[in-house]
């Protein structure tokens, strides 16, 4: 039984294909990581599940969350799901809250929007603020966002996301903008409170500590997916391999291995295997697109590592 | 650093060019003497050498419009010149010492001058020295000083935190040298845009003053006074109001579009500065100065 | 909040005092002695001296200033040298007319600009939104008095539906009062509405790109719902600044529009004063207009503090 299943999700902006044929599934209570560099399409994948793609960008394919279709349905239906069945925490806590509204009102808004009465919402707001480990919830609820730190604001965002007990929580680089010392507490909190989790990041260490399964994205495609432990210890796709090598701690004096070249801009990826212009093993075969093969541990590569 | 030509630049530039050409040509040629009063041609209909007809004194409307363009440009150039020469240096001084008493003083005086709109200044000057083109130009110029000072100050403050200014200061360059060599060239594009926008406002102000009789004095033709003279004839000869009205509107539209077009053309630098302002506003909350900066257009 | 308020109030009072000095000093430059002007060229020196004493113009300028400025606080603007009638009541009466004119203009401007600007922002990608922007750009290029003449042409000359000028006091005939103000209101309001539309549009556009609107939609609000609940108040902060500047512009625009429509407001009084060389009257009207602009500025500052909690904490 799957909570979320995504089949053939593509995102395009006019002619440009930004995400191509992405498929994956999340089981109830499962924590899945989505890794990739900026421009790999991981944020667009998440936003298309929320129905929050920017103007001029559209998604196709199917995505079903607990019996509700998420793609190709009218905004009216999606509105009822957002913030109730699926919630999202964004990267930039400094700008994600309305500067003119008290924090408490912003938390209770998400509950009254989905049918809870005002008094109950207000009472629950304090519980939620307490649950995300904000000290003095009553005081925080009366504060305006500018009176809180970045870490505190992100906790408020998390409280908003959790308010209606959603089935799935999506986090898009939720700790990237935070101080290193605050990051760890935030991650522990997310791991503790998340129902099922889709966690987007470029930080391999974070995924390793948070997730049971990972999807590696590059050039708008999922190039490798599988159980976290297996992908990290035995990467098959050459991109994943390069990524892991580059993040490994190297002994003093040795050169840090890097992936040659840089991520092309959208639309400038090569035909066939999107990674072949940077891949040390690329051959003529790579000019045709490899399919994602393998059961539990899948990879899209003609010459996988082992 | 230059962008591409855009619609505002082309349309605005064309309209402004038309006004300038009309004014320049009027020095050497007009169809008729614009000030010649002739009872025989009183309210003459358009046609037969009188393209747009003649007014109640028999003066040729088209010739008057051409010479009126001269008046308009003359007042605009002097007024904007006064405003830029006073406002820009004051704004730069304030921007280079953002927390000093001098900056505070400049901004307070600025706020005070702001409370004296061009029209009030012109009326006061007119009451003392007798109204005329000169008092109108001075009044409009002084009233426009705050706009320049604010823009110059905001732009200077943004330039002052850039690395090359820090480097120049670290190298021991004097204030004057920094202002002349580094600040002025970098805020020049903002000042050019402001000049274009201010020019449009100056045209509006001159028209209003002439309409009230506090601007250019007869017999020198002026669009605003042409309107005022035509008002009583609105029921019988509306075309007399139509042409100067159209001239004013098109000239103002031209300078406004030119200003907008220049702003986009002089991107990406301006865009960068704008975005930086927006970011700093986000983190620090909106400042009144920042907001004023964007709303200084009228 | 209190600190902010006190500081703004101090700035207001200081500005008013300095403005008073400027206006007074400016008028003191006026060539010619009011007493001599009043009595004509054949007056005896004794008569002039007596009149000077009566006017108080024989006293030192500082005393005269303090006397005049002190009087302003109680609404005493002195007695006209020309008409020998007290100036205060005249100004009060005319101010009421101008205030009605400006308020009506502002209301029309807002009624035009807020819906049009918001619509243009929401639909900035389609032709209708672009058309609104273009129309507002043209509207900005038309001065209020020209708009007045155009409106008179359309509604008074062609349609003959409304009076081309004149003013009927409300106490006399409320219906006629309304009709006589309709065109002046429209000429002020439509032009300022065009200016304001541009600012509303760019302000709403800016807000639409804010992260907190995405947050609101992630909570389950629709596009318009998020904009309505979270966007408009944020967008109104920069608009309020422009509104303040515009009220000042409207006040001055009213001076000209009163001329077009022959409305007995402050502008009319001012221009008559200048024509009749009524120094003290001009001085008084100018001062009232300047203080009005300063007051508008002060109210804008307060509005910020009410709208934006980030300013309330700041000193």
From TrEMBL, chain B:
SUPFAM superfamilies: MetI-like. Its main location: membrane. Keywords: Cell membrane, Membrane, Transmembrane, Transmembrane helix, Transport. The keyword Transmembrane helix applies. Residues 289-298 have a biased composition (Basic and acidic residues). Residues 276-298 are annotated as: Disordered. Pfam families: BPD_transp_1. Residues 69-259 form the ABC transmembrane type-1 domain. Belongs to the binding-protein-dependent transport system permease family. This is Peptide/nickel transport system permease protein. It comes from Nonomuraea endophytica.
From TrEMBL, chain C:
Residues 95-300 form the ABC transmembrane type-1 domain. GO terms for cellular component: plasma membrane. Its main location: membrane. It is a multi-pass membrane protein. Signal peptide: none annotated. Keywords: Cell membrane, Membrane, Transmembrane, Transmembrane helix, Transport. GO terms for molecular function: dipeptide transmembrane transporter activity. The keyword Transport applies. The keyword Metal-binding does not apply. It comes from the Bacteria. The chain crosses the membrane at residues 9-30, 95-122, 134-157, 177-200, 237-261, 281-307. It is found in: Cell membrane. InterPro entries: BPD_transp_1_N, MetI-like, MetI-like_sf. Belongs to the binding-protein-dependent transport system permease family. This is Peptide/nickel transport system permease protein. It comes from Nonomuraea endophytica.
């Amino acid at each position: 039984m799957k909570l979320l299943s995504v089949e053939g999700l593509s995102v395009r902006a006019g002619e440009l294909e930004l995400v191509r044929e992405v498929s994956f599934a999340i089981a109830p209570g499962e924590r899945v990581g989505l890794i990739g560099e900026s421009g790999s399409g991981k944020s667009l994948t998440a936003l298309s599940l929320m129905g929050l793609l920017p103007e001029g960008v559209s998604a196709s394919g199917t995505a079903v969350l607990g019996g509700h279709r998420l793609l190709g349905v009218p905004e009216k239906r999606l509105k009822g799901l957002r913030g109730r069945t699926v919630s999202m925490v964004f990267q930039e806590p400094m700008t994600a809250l309305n500067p003119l509204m008290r924090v408490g009102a912003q938390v209770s808004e998400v509950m009254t929007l989905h049918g809870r009465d005002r008094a109950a919402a207000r009472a629950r707001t304090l519980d939620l603020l307490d649950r995300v480990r904000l000290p003095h919830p009553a005081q925080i609820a009366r504060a305006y966002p500018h009176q809180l730190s970045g870490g505190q604001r992100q906790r408020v965002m998390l409280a908003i996301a959790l308010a209606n007990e959603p089935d799935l929580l999506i986090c898009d680089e939720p700790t990237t903008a935070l101080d290193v010392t605050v990051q760890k507490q935030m991650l522990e909190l997310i791991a503790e409170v998340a129902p099922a989790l889709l966690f987007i990041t470029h930080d391999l260490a974070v995924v390793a500590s948070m997730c049971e399964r990972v999807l590696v994205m590059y050039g708008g495609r999922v190039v490798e997916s599988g159980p976290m432990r297996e992908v990290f210890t035995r990467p098959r796709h050459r991109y994943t391999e390069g990524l892991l090598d580059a993040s490994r701690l190297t002994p003093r004096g040795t050169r840090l291995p890097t992936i040659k070249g840089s991520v092309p801009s959208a639309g400038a990826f090569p035909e066939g295997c999107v990674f072949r212009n940077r891949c040390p093993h690329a051959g003529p075969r790579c000019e045709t697109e490899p399919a994602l093969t393998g059961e539990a541990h899948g990879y899209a590569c003609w010459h996988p590592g082992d | 650093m230059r962008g591409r030509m855009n619609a505002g630049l082309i349309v605005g530039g064309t309209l402004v060019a038309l006004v300038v050409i009309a004014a320049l040509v009027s020095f050497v040629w007009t169809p008729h003497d614009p000030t010649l009063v002739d009872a025989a041609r009183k309210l003459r209909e358009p046609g037969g050498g009188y393209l747009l007809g003649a007014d109640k004194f028999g003066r040729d409307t088209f010739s008057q419009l051409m010479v009126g363009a001269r008046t308009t440009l003359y007042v605009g150039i002097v007024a904007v010149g006064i405003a830029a020469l006073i406002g820009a240096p004051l704004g730069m001084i304030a921007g280079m010492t953002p927390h000093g008493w001098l900056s505070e003083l400049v901004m307070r005086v600025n706020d005070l001058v702001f409370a004296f709109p061009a029209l009030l200044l012109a009326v006061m000057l007119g009451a003392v020295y007798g109204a005329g083109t000169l008092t109108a130009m001075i009044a409009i110029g002084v009233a426009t000083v705050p706009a320049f000072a604010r823009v110059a100050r905001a732009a200077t403050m943004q330039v002052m935190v850039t690395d090359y200014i820090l480097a120049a200061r670290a190298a021991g360059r004097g204030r004057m040298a920094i202002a002349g060599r580094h600040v002025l060239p970098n805020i020049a594009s903002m000042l050019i845009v402001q000049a274009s926008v201010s020019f449009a406002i100056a045209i509006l102000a001159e028209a209003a003053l002439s309409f009230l009789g506090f601007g250019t004095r007869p017999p020198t033709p002026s669009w605003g006074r042409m309107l005022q003279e035509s008002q009583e004839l609105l029921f019988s000869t509306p075309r007399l109001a139509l042409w100067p009205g159209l001239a004013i509107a098109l000239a103002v539209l031209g300078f406004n579009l030119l200003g907008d077009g220049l702003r986009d053309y002089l991107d990406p630098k301006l865009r960068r500065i704008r975005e930086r302002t927006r970011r700093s506003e986000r983190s620090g909350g909106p400042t009144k100065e920042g907001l004023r900066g964007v709303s200084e257009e009228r | 909040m209190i600190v902010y308020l006190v500081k703004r109030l101090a700035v207001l009072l200081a500005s008013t005092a300095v403005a008073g000095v400027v206006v007074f000093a400016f008028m003191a430059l006026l060539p010619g002695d009011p007493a001599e002007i009043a009595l004509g060229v054949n007056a005896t020196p004794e008569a002039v001296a007596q009149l000077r004493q009566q006017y108080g113009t024989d006293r030192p300028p500082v005393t005269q200033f303090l006397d005049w400025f002190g009087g302003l606080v109680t609404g005493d603007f002195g007695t006209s040298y020309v008409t020998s009638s007290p100036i205060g009541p005249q100004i009060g009466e005319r101010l009421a007319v101008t205030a009605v004119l400006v308020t009506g203009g502002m209301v029309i401007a807002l009624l035009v600009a807020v819906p049009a600007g918001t619509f243009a922002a929401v639909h900035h990608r389609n032709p209708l939104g672009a058309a609104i922007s273009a129309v507002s750009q043209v509207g900005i290029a038309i001065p209020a008095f020209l708009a007045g003449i155009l409106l008179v042409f359309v509604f008074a000359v062609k349609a003959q539906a409304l009076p081309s000028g004149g003013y009927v006091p409300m106490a006399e005939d409320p219906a006629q009062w309304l009709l006589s103000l309709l065109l002046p209101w429209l000429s002020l309001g439509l032009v300022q509405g065009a200016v304001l539309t541009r600012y509303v549009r760019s302000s709403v556009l800016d807000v639409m790109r804010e992260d907190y609107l995405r947050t609101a939609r992630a909570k389950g609000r629709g596009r318009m719902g998020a904009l309505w609940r979270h966007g408009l108040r944020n967008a109104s902060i920069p608009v309020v600044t422009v509104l303040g500047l515009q009220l000042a512009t409207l006040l001055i625009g009213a001076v000209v529009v009163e001329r077009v429509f022959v409305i007995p407001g402050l502008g009319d009084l001012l221009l008559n004063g200048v024509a009749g060389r009524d120094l003290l009257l001009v001085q008084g009207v100018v001062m009232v207009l300047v203080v009005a602009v300063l007051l508008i500025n002060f109210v804008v500052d307060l509005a910020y503090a009410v709208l934006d909690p980030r300013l309330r904490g700041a000193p």
